[in-house]
Structure formats: C-alpha cells, structure tokens
C-alpha cells in the first residue's frame, strides 16, 4: 500500500509540499527551543578573566527554602537564587593556600569604579594573575597608585581622578595594561570596597605536576558549612559573570514555555494540513475501498506515507533548527537576556525531541485524518467522494467537550487563584485549548456563519456573491479546514501580543503610581551617606529619601506565599518615605523605619500571622539573616507586593553596598534642579533626572524584557501564517476540476476570480471572528486579574494589524492559487485529478 501511495505522489505534489513544509517548520521551531533549553541546562560560561585559575571558590548563590514541615522527608524542597554577591571570609584564603598542590590562592575583591565615562570593576593587583594580565609599561601599584588599561588614554605618572563607590579619589598611574582594566594595590582595594575581612571569590593556581583531583578534594574538605562552592572547568565563568546561573534558569523556563506552545501549534498545524490533504484524496481513497482495500490497509497506507514524509521533514528541520536556535541565542545575548560569554549547545537531545515531536505529531495526525476514509463503506465512500457533508462523530464530540472544559477550567482558575503577572502562565495552554475546541466544531460553526453571511454577501456582491455562497455552503466542511488555520493565526497572534502589552502597561502603571518623587538623583557607583544631608539642605527640596532595591526571603516564620523569586524590597529613608512613595500605612508608621525594621503588605502579614511590633527573620540578598521588627502594615495590589526597609539596611546587603538613588520631592522641579548643581559638582558621577525620565527609563526596561517574548511569539505566529498559506493554496488548487467545469458551462476567468474573492472574504471574516473569540477567552481572565478590565491594554492598531495580515494572507494565497489553476485549459482541468 505504501508503494502505491508513493507512486501516486507525483499527481498530488501540492499537498505533499504543503504537508512537508508544515512538518519541517514545526521541527525547526521545536529543535530551536530544545537547543535553547539544553543551553540553559548546561549553563556553560567559559572563564575569561579567571582563565588562569584552575579552580575558583565562590559563595553559594542558591538558598534552600525552608519547608513547611522540616521533619517531613517526603516534602519537596525548593531552592532560590540569591541576587547579591555572597562573599567569603578572608580567612578561607589562607586555608586554601595551605592545601597540598596549591601554588597560590588569590582572594579577589572588586569595587565599582567610574573612569571617565566607563564603569569598570576595580580589583587588587594580585587578581591580575588569575587571567593572567601583564604590564605593558610601568610597575605594580603601591598605596595611592593605580594601574589602568590603555583604553582609558592615561599615561604613566599622570594624576587621575576616579569615582570609587560614589567618592572621587585621585591616584597616580603607575602602570598600563591592555583593555579597560583598573587595578589598585592589594592593601588599598579592601578599604575602597568597604567590606574588609571578606573576599568576592578565591582563585586557585595549581602547582605544576600536582594532581587536580587531589587538590580539588583537599579544597572541598574546607567548604562544608561555609556556604561556599568549588568551581572548575567552564563552571568558573559562573563566578565571573554575575547572574549567569539565573540567566540559565530563565532560559530553561523561556524555552520550555515557548517550546511547549510551539509543539502544540505544530501538532495542530500538521494534523490540520494532513486532514485537508486526506479530504482532497477522498476520491482516490474511495476507489481503493471499492476495489477491496480493507480499512486496516488504508490506515496503514496513510500512516506509512505520512511517516515517510515525516522522516525527511524531521531531517531537514533538524539541520535548520540548529542554525535557527543559534540565531535566536545570539539575539538573546545581544540584548542582555543571557551573558554573551555563555556557550550555545544543540546536541543529540534537541534532535531526539524535535524528531520525536514531528513523528508523533504526524502519526497522530495521520490516524485522525485517515480514520473516516478507512471506516466508510465502499458505496458510501464513492457517493461522498466529490463532496464531504458528514463531519460529526462521537470522537470529535468527546474531544470538543474535553477541550472546552479545559479552556473553561483555566478561565476559572486564572480568575480565582492567580494573582498579578503570574496570571499569564495559563495563557499558552488556554489559547491552544480554545483553538482546538473551536477547530473540532468549526464545520458546524462555519455552516451557521455562512447562513448568516449569505444574504448580506449576495446583496453587496451580486452574481459573484451568489456563486460564492452556493459553493461555500456546498463545501462547508472543506471550507472549515481553511477557516481553522486563519482562526489559529489570528488567535495566537492577538493573544500573545496583547498579553505582553497588557503586562508591560500594568507594570509601568504600578511603577508610576508608586513613584511620588519629582526628581531623582542617580549614581552608577553608589551614593555615600553625606550626599543625602546635602540634598536635604538644598532650597526648594521638601523631602529626600535614599533608595535601594533587592530581593529578600522570609526565613522565619514559615512563609506559605514565598516563591523562589522571593519578595522585592525597597530601601527608603523612613522620615521621608511617606512623601516619596505612594504607601499609606493602615497601621503603624513609616517614620519608624530605622535600624532593623520592616513594613509589610497587610495581606502578607496576615499570612505570616504577624502584626505591628512582632519580629520576623529575613534572609537578605547576600544570604545574611536579619531579625527585623514590623513597624507598619499597608495595603498593596496583588502581584505587586513590595516590602519596605531602611535604605541603609537594604544597601548594606547589596553587591555595591550603597544606595544608587535619592528620591526628591520639591514644589518647583526646575528650580530645585538648578539648586542641586553644587551637589553634582562636588560629587562626580551623580546625575539628576525628573520623574518623567525615570518612568520612561522603567518603561524602556520593560520593553527590553518584552522584546524576547515578542521574538519567541513571533516565531510561532510566523509558523501559523505559513499554515494559513499552505491550507489556502491546497484547498484552492484542489478545485481545478470544479473551475474547469464552471468554465465549460460559460463562466469566465473574471467571474471565477470574483467568486473566489468573495469566498476568501467570507473565510477571513469567519476565521478572524473565531480567532478573536479564542484571544478574548484567553485574555479576559488575565486582564480581569491584573487590571480589573475586560479589555487588554495596548493600541487598537495591533488588532487591526493582525486582522489586516490575516486578510492579506488569505486573499493573496487564494487569488494566486486561483489564478494559477485557471491557467489550465478548461477541458484539461475538468478531467484533471483532484
């Protein structure tokens, strides 16, 4: 049977090409996402600055979150990533240096430095051996001296002013090295960094001939109980590139979400394309049944030829998928989503996943597509060969009920359980469930829609509309196969784009609502404490508050609402917090935010069973556990809860150790800006921006985060657009016989083109309407939870653009295919194979 199917392939090249393309592009998407996931799982970041260190000891950036019942061994534990640098005790450097086989242990200390317009990390000269870096000219730095990179344009002996952690200091250039590096004397960098007695990491140089395994084991014996991790090989880069580990985790989540959606879309598209292809071969399959072919033989033939195509499509998809995945990864790295030093990997696992998805999807689609033809009696098959009218079956009804039930369940769960931005997590499966449900009942919906459109179409389009409505009503089942991909493309595009625009708009609105400052003083290296007093003394300044942000975790008591993302914390100056933030306490006072204190959202405090005056233990971003007293409770919108702490407490546990902003309230921003000029002149590296600029900067950051979602969603939208073109070209080309007969009975090419134009218009209207319904049922629960509105946030031009693109694809594909079909002479077309 497979041999027969392959021999007839040359008579149905269009259907073969369309199905092959659907499988190939599906494999490309799945392989690309699987490659990104493998890259995130491996998380390989080859060392650059630490290339000469055989081993690196660094603070553990993960924290085992407390269990609800610590005594329960079956309760799964979760780990959270700590956002600030976890430092090590300086005593550990000497202990590591004494391990047999260790040539040297270098405790590296880094400090943010502003050299001209360049922000770099300054380090002690001993850290140069970890790269290694050699002097191009000059000598190693002593106290009061500095070694600079040649890229700074400095010369030997020159006196240069550097901004170190918010303070301007003058140094003598003692040496030059390549690049933009800054090296201080080892005894000076600890003072400049502001955290004496600790180091950022320890680079280990091994003696020649020493056994690396023995050295590693010796160092490993020193680390238990010290929250330290030993890194080797490409893992050393995790210590060098802050956030690389978290970026790898984010890449895993991102690729999993979009890979899952791409797989579902691929299964949907391949099944739809195969179904349309089998419909067009109904005459061929009916004749095979009439001459004695059994249902089992027919099913095996359809499955066999489908898998035959799928094997070659998977091979082509894998070849292109690796290249496409690498291109996607470069876009992510170029926009700062992942470190540029991270290595992209696409090994055998993505190949297996993509191949399995294509083969499984094709097999399932072939079973579904060939089921009706295989089970129909021969006489009925011959009668139905020209026009398919029956479409309803108990299997279709059951699947439709399940899909509608799943969509409704997600709708209810999103509204009842989800809060804030996490409500978007149900959008991917929701859009596919609604699309599948409507696709299963699309023949019935299409018949109803055609009945509604019949009279308006005829009234406005005359004879062409009369012919089009007759043809569409007769071929309603096959027209439904054309409507389905239009619905999918419209629904997926509208839902994904508006999901992101709504998320961005809500986040920007929350930021703007919480911002009460008229001006903001910013620094790229941190702001020293005396600056706040100077700002407060400036005429026209009514209130000023230091500002620092981080992430914290409630360690005690057990926090049932705690996730691995922790709680966002804002550090403020208590006396001015009421004027520079939008927080209005329901109990307690923000002026008491001094020392080790915290202000909590009221709902969060209720979850913890705590009130004003009680104490909780908070794990700061650098792993330090701090008991804090609750001094205020305040209402906060769900999903945007933020803790408030004194700025000095929050900043002291960040990597830089200093606040990065000062929020300023003033009655006259322009006058206050001018009055702040002496403060800026006395502290190089400071800048002042107004409220609008700060809001715009936050919006730009949100857009950068949204960009990746647009990129990944754009892949899937493009794939669904290809399926629209495939389906329309297949459906139109298969009507050559019909067109030939119409021309033999007197219809002109112009009349047929006008008829198909009207049909394309009806298919567009029905497909767009169903796609809008899919997007609406996906977006509505999300917008209700995040914004309290039924409509998404975003310009109407987005929806108009989606509709316009769907119409352009539909009309373009239909008319081009019709024009190509009409080039055949009527007599030849009338006897051509379907």
Question: Outline of this structure?
Answer:
Strands 16, 17, 18, 19, 20, 21, 22, 23, 24 and 25 form a ten-stranded mixed sheet that branches. A six-stranded mixed barrel has the order 6-7-12-9-11-10. 55% of the residues lie in helices and 17% in strands. Keywords: Cell membrane, Membrane, Transmembrane, Transmembrane helix.
Describe this structure as you would to a colleague.
The protein is an alpha+beta fold and 834 residues long. It folds into 5 domains: 1-35 and 241-386, no CATH class; 46-106 and 201-239, no CATH class; 110-194, no CATH class; 411-514 and 701-834, no CATH class; 525-684, no CATH class. The protein is 55% helix and 17% strand. The protein has 26 helices and 25 strands. A hairpin with a 5-residue loop joins strand 21 (615-619) and strand 22. Helix 14 (442-474) packs antiparallel against helix 24. The longest helix has 43 residues, at 691-733. It is elongated and about 100 Å long. The relative contact order is 0.12. The model has no long low-confidence stretch (mean pLDDT 84). Keywords: Cell membrane, Membrane, Transmembrane, Transmembrane helix. Pfam families: FtsX.
């Amino acid at each position: 049977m497979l041999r027969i199917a392959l021999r007839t392939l040359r008579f149905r090249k269009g259907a073969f090409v369309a199905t092959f393309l659907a499988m190939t592009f599906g494999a490309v998407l799945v392989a690309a996402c699987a490659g990104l996931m493998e890259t995130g799982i491996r998380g390989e970041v080859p060392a650059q600055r630490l290339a000469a260190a055989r081993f690196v000891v660094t603070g553990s950036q993960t924290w085992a979150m407390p269990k609800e019942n610590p005594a329960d061994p079956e309760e799964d534990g979760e780990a959270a990533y700590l956002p600030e640098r976890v430092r090590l005790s300086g005593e550990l450097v000497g202990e590591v240096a004494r391990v047999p086989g260790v040539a040297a242990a270098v405790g590296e200390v880094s400090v943010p430095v502003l050299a001209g317009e360049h922000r770099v990390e300054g380090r002690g000269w001993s850290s140069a051996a970890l790269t290694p870096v050699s002097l191009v000219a000059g000598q190693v730095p002593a106290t009061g001296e500095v070694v600079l990179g040649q890229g700074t344009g400095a010369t030997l002996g020159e006196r240069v002013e550097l901004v170190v952690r918010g303070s301007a200091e003058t140094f003598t250039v003692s040496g030059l090295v390549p690049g933009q590096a800054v090296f201080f004397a080892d005894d000076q960098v600890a003072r400049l960094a502001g955290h004496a007695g600790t180091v950022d990491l320890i680079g280990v140089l091994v003696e020649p001939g020493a056994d690396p395994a023995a050295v590693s084991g010796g160092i490993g014996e020193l680390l238990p109980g010290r929250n330290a991790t030993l890194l080797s090989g490409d893992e050393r880069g995790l210590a060098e590139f802050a956030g690389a580990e978290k970026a790898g985790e984010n890449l895993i989540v991102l690729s999993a979400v979009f890979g899952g959606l791409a797989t579902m879309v691929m299964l949907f598209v391949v099944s739809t394309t195969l179904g349309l292809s089998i419909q067009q071969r109904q005459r061929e399959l009916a004749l095979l049944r009439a001459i004695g072919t059994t249902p089992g033989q027919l099913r095996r033939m359809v499955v066999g030829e489908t898998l035959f195509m799928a094997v070659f499509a998977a091979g082509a998809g894998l070849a292109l998928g690796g290249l496409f995945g690498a291109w996607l990864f470069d876009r992510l790295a170029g926009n700062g989503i992942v470190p540029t030093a991270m290595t992209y990997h696409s090994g055998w696992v993505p190949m297996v996943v993509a191949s399995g998805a294509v083969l499984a999807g094709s097999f399932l689609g072939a079973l579904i597509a060939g089921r009706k033809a295989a089970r129909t009696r021969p006489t009925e098959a011959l009668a139905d060969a020209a026009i398919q009218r029956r479409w309803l079956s108990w299997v279709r009804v059951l699947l439709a009920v399940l899909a509608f039930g799943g969509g409704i369940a997600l709708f209810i769960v999103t509204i009842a359980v989800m809060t804030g931005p996490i409500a978007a997590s149900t959008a991917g499966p929701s859009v596919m469930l609604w699309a599948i449900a409507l696709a299963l009942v699309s023949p019935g919906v299409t018949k109803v829609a055609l009945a509604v459109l019949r009279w308006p179409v005829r009234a406005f389009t005359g004879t062409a509309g009369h012919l089009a409505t007759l043809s569409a009503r007769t071929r309603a089942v096959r027209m439904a196969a054309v409507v389905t991909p239009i619905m999918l493309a419209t629904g997926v595009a509208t839902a994904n784009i508006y999901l992101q625009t709504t998320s961005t708009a809500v986040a920007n609105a929350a930021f703007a609502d919480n911002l009460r400052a008229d001006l903001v003083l910013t620094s790229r290296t941190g702001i020293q404490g005396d600056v706040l007093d100077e700002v407060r003394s400036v005429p026209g300044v009514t209130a000023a508050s230091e500002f620092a942000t981080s992430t914290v975790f409630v360690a005690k008591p057990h926090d049932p609402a705690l996730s691995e993302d922790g709680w966002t914390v804002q550090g403020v100056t208590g006396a001015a917090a009421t004027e520079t933030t939008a927080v209005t306490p329901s109990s307690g006072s923000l002026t008491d935010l001094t020392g080790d204190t915290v202000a909590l959202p009221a709902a969060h405090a209720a979850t913890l069973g705590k009130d004003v005056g009680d104490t909780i233990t908070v794990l700061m971003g650098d792993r330090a556990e701090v008991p804090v007293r609750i001094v205020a409770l305040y209402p906060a919108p769900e999903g945007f809860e933020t803790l408030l702490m004194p700025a000095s407490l929050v900043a002291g546990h960040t990597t830089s150790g200093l606040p990065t902003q000062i929020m300023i309230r003033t009655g006259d921003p322009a006058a206050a800006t001018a009055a702040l000029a002496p403060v800026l002149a006395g502290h190089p590296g400071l800048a002042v921006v107004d409220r609008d600029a700060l809001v715009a900067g936050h919006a730009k950051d949100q857009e950068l985060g949204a960009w990746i979602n647009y990129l990944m969603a754009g892949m899937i939208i493009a794939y669904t657009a290809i399926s629209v073109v495939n389906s329309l070209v297949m459906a139109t080309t298969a009507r050559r016989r019909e067109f030939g007969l119409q021309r033999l009975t007197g219809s002109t090419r112009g009349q047929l083109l006008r008829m198909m134009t009207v049909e394309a218009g009806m298919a567009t209207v029905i497909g767009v309407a169903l796609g809008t319904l899919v997007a609406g049922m996906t977006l509505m629960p999300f917008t209700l939870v995040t914004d309290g509105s039924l409509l998404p946030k975003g310009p109407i031009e987005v929806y108009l653009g989606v509709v316009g693109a769907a119409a352009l694809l539909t009309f373009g594909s239909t008319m081009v295919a019709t024009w190509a079909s009409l080039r055949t002479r009527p007599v030849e077309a009338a006897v051509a194979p379907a």
